[in-house]
Write a structure and sequence with these properties.
The structure holds 2 protein chains of 2 kinds. Chain A is of the alpha/beta class. Chain A is 38% helix and 21% strand. Chain B is mainly α. Chain B has a two-stranded antiparallel sheet with strand order 1-2. The two termini of chain B are 29 Å apart. The chains are: A alpha/beta, B mainly alpha. The interface between A and B is medium-sized, with 24 and 32 residues.
């Protein structure tokens, strides 16, 4: 089971995406969206943290908080805007295979 | 153009990054993000109350006018509690969120902040048995700087002293933990209230008013200067350019919200007493007139996308138009994209300036009503502009502005359509 945590400003626009990622993951993927204030208490057990493009300036700060074991990446903006969940899932998987 | 954009990105991102790490600014931002529900209630009351100003042309409006006039005391009080005590709520919020960001228990600092705020933002006019008259007019937007000062000072002193265990009174282990914490915080709390009391005494003895009264006398020119067309234009450019680089406007809230909500609350207080509204640049002005369809003015752009012949752009329009109607511009900003797209940089940066300038001038000249209520960020501009001003002309202005925005976007949009064929299969 792949566990993806999405972070954006209010956790709202990413939550639409989270549902779609779960759908395209066909039961193999868990994904939830959190705001910048609350993600900290939800990263335990995450395989990867993906950051919305509107808060990409937070990536360094999030990396610091999450630690070196879990990769933190910015979501591909175009895929994000077009709600292309399959592509974002692919991005997560290729990041983890690095 | 690309060079300029690279240069801007290199300079703007570190600033956003630094601000996002600044705990006080973030606590201010968190506070204003969560303060909307009571303001929303106040806005509904203000809309009902606005009935008192109607020229009663038919039975419905005559009945409304009658109701509002007969119940003006009740409506005024409900509006005062929800809109005009804003600084008290801001003080509570900042103390709470700052404690949360520091990871310390918020109860004592919040309690002490409230005591400090009441002491420094109001002053007694008559205190006798069964009759206490206290001046609380500074609890609205005028007291916002005192709210920021008291909450931050309280939490900082509290944290400093308790971390170093200054004045920590140690209880034997047999004493229940709750009791020993309250003894532990005794000296810090006493120190903070003593600081508040000294400030109160100085202001009351020398100026006969509260600290908020002194501050507003000194800073009222600054408040007036903050509400001006150049400032509104600057904000319009800064926030939209930031958005272009993927910097959420929440970054700037720590600076902007105290001003925008402060002026709104002053307008609300004036409206409640029937006085002329003093300010133009408020949070509702920015949110409903400045950015129609969210940052990047994505309502106009979304309509252009829907009309496009290219299938993928039409699809972006279909995905983005409903969110844009509710002021959420992420799908179009990243899907078209606007972000980091040199072709759309100029309209993205400048359309809000046009919106802000037109609206500001019309409101300054009192052709369109000014704002005195804030409903919610996701209220569509058409209704938000109408309800927050009580003026239907404001809603018409929004329609006109969207048309202007479409005209400005059009040539850039066409150029974008031509130059980005390769994004066509990104679905």
């Amino acid at each position: 089971m792949l566990n993806i945590v999405l972070v954006c400003n209010g956790g709202m626009s990413t939550s639409i995406l989270a549902n779609r990622i779960v759908d395209v993951g066909e039961g193999e993927v868990a994904c939830s969206a959190y705001s910048e204030q609350e993600y900290g208490s939800h990263v335990a057990g995450a395989d990867i943290v993906m950051v919305g493009p509107q808060v990409r300036y937070l990536i360094d700060q999030i990396k610091e908080k999450v630690g070196p074991d879990v990769p933190v990446v910015g979501i591909n903006p175009l895929a994000y805007g077009r709600l292309n969940a399959a592509k974002i899932l692919e991005q997560a998987k290729s990041e983890l295979n690095k | 153009m690309e060079k300029f954009i690279n240069w801007l990105e290199k300079n703007l991102m570190p600033i956003a990054n630094k601000i996002a790490k600044q705990r006080h600014l973030m606590a201010i931002r968190d506070t204003f993000m969560t303060i909307l529900p009571p303001l929303f209630f106040g806005a509904i009351v203000a809309v009902i109350n606005a009935g008192a100003d109607f020229d009663a042309t038919n039975a419905f409006f005559a009945a409304w006018k009658n109701f509002a006039t007969n119940n003006s005391m009740i409506l005024g009080w409900l509006n005062l509690i929800t809109m005009s005590l804003m600084s008290l709520y801001v003080c509570i919020g900042i103390a709470y969120y700052l404690c949360k960001r520091y990871g310390i228990d918020a109860y004592m600092p919040v309690l002490t902040s409230v005591a400090g705020f009441i002491m420094l933002a109001s002053y007694p006019q008559e205190l006798s048995y069964g009759n206490a008259l206290v001046q609380i007019t500074y609890w609205d937007g005028k007291g916002i700087l005192v709210a920021l000062f008291v909450s931050i000072m309280t939490v900082e002193v509290y944290k400093y002293m308790s971390e170093r265990k200054i004045g920590y009174i140690k209880m034997p282990d047999s004493v229940p933990p709750a009791l020993s914490t309250s003894f532990g915080s005794l000296v810090p709390v006493l120190t903070i209230i003593l600081i508040d009391a000294i400030l109160f005494i100085i202001c009351y003895k020398t100026a006969g008013t509260s600290l908020a009264g002194v501050v507003i006398n000194v800073l009222s020119p600054a408040f007036k200067a903050a509400d001006s067309l150049p400032v509104a234009m600057f904000v319009a450019i800064l926030l939209n350019v930031g958005w272009f680089f993927g910097i959420h406007d929440a970054v700037w809230s720590g600076f902007l919200d105290p001003i925008e909500y402060g002026t709104l609350s002053l307008n609300a207080a004036a409206k409640a007493t029937g006085a002329a509204l003093p300010h133009v640049f408020t949070v509702s002005f920015w949110c409903y007139f400045g950015i129609i369809g969210g940052l990047g003015n994505c309502l106009a752009l979304g309509i252009l996308c829907l009309l496009s012949k290219r299938k993928d752009i039409k699809m972006v329009g279909r995905l983005g138009i409903v969110p844009a109607f509710f002021g959420i511009s992420e799908p179009i900003t990243f899907g078209l994209p606007i972000m980091l797209n040199p072709i759309l940089f100029i309209p993205c940066a400048l359309i809000s300036v046009v919106n802000v300038t037109v609206s500001y001038l019309l409101m300054s000249a009192n052709i369109i009503g000014r704002t005195y209520a804030m409903l919610s960020y996701s209220m569509p501009s058409f209704f938000g502009a109408w309800l927050s001003t009580g003026d239907f002309k404001a809603a018409i202005l929004i329609v006109v502005l969207v048309l202007i925005d479409m005209v400005i976007y059009y040539p850039f949009f066409k150029a974008h359509e031509k130059s980005t064929e390769e994004l066509a299969d990104e679905f």
